[in-house]
TrEMBL record:
Protein name as catalogued: Conserved domain protein
Organism of origin: Paraprevotella xylaniphila YIT 11841
Signal peptide range: 1-24
Domain of life assignment: Bacteria
Keywords: Signal
Protein's UniProt keywords contain Signal: yes
C-alpha cells in the first residue's frame, strides 16, 4: 500500500512539472515585451528665439531674443505606437548634441516642447495623439502681467517631420528646431490728424484690450480655432502723449480667432463733455505660431458717425 502511494505522488510531481514547463514562459495577459534600449541616439534641439521680430518692430528691450524655459521634453514615436520620453534641464545649450539610448526600429516622428515649469501642469504623453493634445498652463495661474509675459515667451514646440531609422551598432542623429507657439499683435495708433482749429480739439485713445484664450496647444496645427475667447490682456493709454499717439504690443496663443477693442474720446470746438466711440477689431482667420502682426490705427476726418464700429483685420504677418 505504501508503495502505491509513493508511486501516485511521483506521477503528481511529474504532472505539476509538465504544467509549469508549459505555462511558465508566458507573459501575463495584457503585457507586451519591449525590445531593449540598446541603440545610441544623439538629439540636438535648436530654439528659434528671435522669431517674433519683424521690420519696423521696436523689438529691443522686449525680451524676445531670449527664451527663459526651464525644461525641454522630447518624444520619439515608433511606428508600432510606442513613445519614448526624454527630458532636458535648463542647463542644456540650444543646438548641443545630447546622448540617449532608444529601441531599434522606425521612429515615425520626433516631437519636442520647451516651457517654463510652473509646478502645476505636467507635460507628459504615452501616445502620438496625447503629444498632439499637450496644453500649456492656464494664464490665470500667474499673479502679474510680467509673469504671464515671461511664461508666454518660454513656450516652444517643433517636430522632426520625417521617419528616422534607429539601428544597432550605429549612432543615430536627430535634429529638431523649435518655434514659438505664440503670436504677437503690435498696435500703433495716431490721433494727431483729427485735431484742427475748426474741427476736433480733442481726440484721445482709451484702453486697448486684446482677447484670446487662457491656455494654448503646444501643437495648434492639430486643433481647430477656438470660438470662445476667455482671456483679456489690456493696455491703458493713461497720459496725454500716449492718448494722441503711441504703440503697444500683446502676446497671445496662436491658432485662435483673436480680436481687440479700443475706444476714442473726442470733442469738437465749442462742445461740452467729450463723447466716446467704441471699436471692435477682429482678425478674420486664426493667427499663426511665431508670427508678428502690425496694426496701424489712424484717427482722422471731420465726424464720428456712430457710438460703436466693427472692423475686420486680415491676419497676414506684418499687416
Amino acid at each position: 500500500m505504501e508503495h502505491k502511494v509513493r508511486k501516485g505522488m511521483k506521477w503528481l510531481w511529474l504532472f505539476c512539472l509538465l504544467c509549469w514547463t508549459a505555462c511558465g514562459g508566458e507573459e501575463p495577459a495584457g503585457e507586451t515585451l519591449l525590445p531593449p534600449k540598446d541603440c545610441e541616439v544623439t538629439v540636438s534641439v535648436r530654439l528659434d528665439a528671435a522669431s517674433l521680430r519683424g521690420m519696423g518692430d521696436p523689438g529691443s528691450g522686449t525680451g524676445e531674443g531670449t527664451a527663459e524655459w526651464t525644461r525641454i521634453d522630447i518624444f520619439l514615436v515608433y511606428d508600432w505606437g510606442q513613445v519614448l520620453h526624454y527630458s532636458l534641464g535648463e542647463d542644456y545649450v540650444s543646438g548641443k548634441e545630447q546622448k540617449f539610448y532608444a529601441f531599434a526600429g522606425t521612429v515615425r516622428d520626433v516631437y519636442a516642447v520647451a516651457y517654463k515649469e510652473t509646478g502645476v501642469t505636467t507635460v507628459t504623453a504615452s501616445s502620438e495623439q496625447g503629444i498632439q493634445d499637450l496644453q500649456t498652463a492656464l494664464l490665470s495661474g500667474f499673479s502679474t502681467a510680467e509673469e504671464k509675459k515671461a511664461y508666454l515667451l518660454s513656450l516652444f514646440s517643433g517636430r522632426a517631420g520625417k521617419a528616422i531609422e534607429v539601428e544597432k551598432e550605429k549612432i543615430t542623429t536627430i535634429k529638431v528646431t523649435l518655434q514659438r507657439i505664440i503670436a504677437k499683435v503690435d498696435v500703433q495708433w495716431d490721433a494727431e490728424d483729427a485735431y484742427s482749429p475748426e474741427g476736433y480739439v480733442e481726440a484721445r485713445m482709451g484702453s486697448i484690450t486684446l482677447y484670446g484664450t487662457e491656455r494654448g496647444w503646444f501643437f495648434p496645427q492639430f486643433h481647430q480655432a477656438e470660438e470662445a475667447l476667455t482671456y483679456a490682456g489690456c493696455y491703458q493709454a493713461d497720459d496725454a502723449v500716449s492718448e494722441r499717439n503711441g504703440r503697444t504690443y500683446f502676446y497671445t496663443f496662436s491658432g485662435q480667432k483673436n480680436k481687440f477693442t479700443f475706444s476714442v474720446s473726442h470733442k469738437k470746438k465749442g462742445e461740452g463733455a467729450s463723447e466716446k466711440t467704441e471699436y471692435t477689431a477682429e482678425f478674420l482667420s486664426p493667427l499663426d505660431a511665431a508670427s508678428w502682426h502690425k496694426v496701424n490705427l489712424s484717427v482722422k476726418g471731420t465726424s464720428f458717425e456712430a457710438e460703436s464700429h466693427d472692423l475686420q483685420l486680415m491676419s497676414n504677418q506684418g499687416n
